[in-house]
Amino acid sequence: MDIDTQSPLETKVGHSPDSLLTHGELLRALEEFRATNDERLARIERRGSADILTEEKAARIDAALDQQQRQIDELKLKGARPALAREALSSDPLAAREHKAAFEAYVRRGESAALRQLETKALSVGSGPDGGYLVPPEVETEIGARLAAISPIRSLASVRVVSANVYKKPFMTSGPAVGWVGETADRLQTNSPVLDELSFPAMELYAMPAATATLLEDAAVNIDQWIASEVDLAFAAQEGTAFVTGDGVNKPKGFLAYTTIANDSWAWENIGYIATGQAGAWPASDPSDVLVDLIYALKAGYRQNGAFVMNRKTQSAIRKFKDTTGQYLWQPPAQPGGRAMLLGFPVIEAEDMPDISADALAIAFGDFRRGYLVVDRAGVSVLRDPYSAKPYVLFYTTKRIGGGVQDFEAIKLLKFAAS
């Protein structure tokens, strides 16, 4: 069959030609990796040791796989960036345009009178000459969308937007008494439910991009896009670490910062773990069995929406696991922009997860949408500072973010320990 090599690449819905090419390269590299690994395993079985050249080849292809996955992640982020200036975000398009023009005048030239007038009209108490001015809604949405695209835990967790500094969530420590009763039998008085409360304070996260006067004077530069692109990676890196390991002091509390306990002894306000049986290592035989144990440590209601969270090094080790039929357990994304799968569940890379070592909690599995809560206080503020770093103009940009575990049954950990 003849192929028209001159025709443009087909662009599937939601995927660019670049992402399709990169995904194809990932699949080809994966097949080569699996063939090399099979050769390595066969040589070990025949001679009792691996060939150094085969080992090095497998390591090189494994590194190439990681590089291909990074390129897919970058393309996915690029495609997830929404267009700016979406005036439909505001119920009053005229007011949105007015706010955008006033904000641009403030950022480019330091003219704040129009912004002060607008925020006085709106009775805004979240900003001011000392604390900065609120960015237009489309810029705030742009920053939020990018954070969701590049912050792995935020992409999994529940997100609540609040107007106060603390979000309080009530929950029942014991439910109301219930039971079966006959049609004419007496109905005894039941106990009332016992309520407790979880608090999630929103902490201040900041970035301070700098611009030259030439950049600010260049009318071709989209100043909204520039601010969003300067702060999103800084915000995402900081909050991504906090959601995993943060201690809760002036930052969100990460799910690894809570008290952990063997899953057989699990109690509320603790995170249960399954031990591998080997300190800093997988079990000597059938290592993938502990992953099955980890999956089934979750109740069925959580398990159906479960996802694995681990860093790239841990995923590299799991990539070599096979089942009893010789099939690899780790499967690449089925389509561009998709997730790699492990035992039927998506794999999320979070580089803040620890490497495999003695007593490390290197893998998490759970329904993070029910288990972890991210709290965003509405509004992103920008304070223009032309004085502290002359000739540069600094933009002190702040956003309030909180986070913590909201359902301690929904997340389980794999601990690389003897018990």
Write a structural description.
- The chain is an alpha+beta fold.
- The model is unreliable at 1-15, 80-90 and 123-130 (pLDDT under 50).
- Among the domains are: 17-80; 132-172 and 195-311 and 350-419, Major capsid protein gp5 fold (2-Layer Sandwich).
- The chain has helices at 17-47, 52-80, 93-109, 113-121, 137-150, 152-156, 213-217, 223-245, 289-296, 300-303, 312-318, 368-371, and strands spanning 133-134, 158-162, 166-174, 194-201, 203-207, 210-211, 260-262, 271-275, 307-310, 330-331, 341-342, 345-349, 361-366, 372-385, 393-405, 411-415.
- 37% of the residues lie in helices and 21% in strands.
- The strands form 3 sheets. Strands 7-8-16-13-9-12-11-10 form an 8-stranded mixed sheet. Strands 1, 2, 5, 6, 14 and 15 form a 6-stranded mixed sheet that branches. Strands 3-4 form a two-stranded antiparallel sheet.
- The protein contains 12 helices and 16 strands.
- Helix 1 runs antiparallel to helix 2 (52-80) and helix 3 (93-109) runs antiparallel to helix 4.
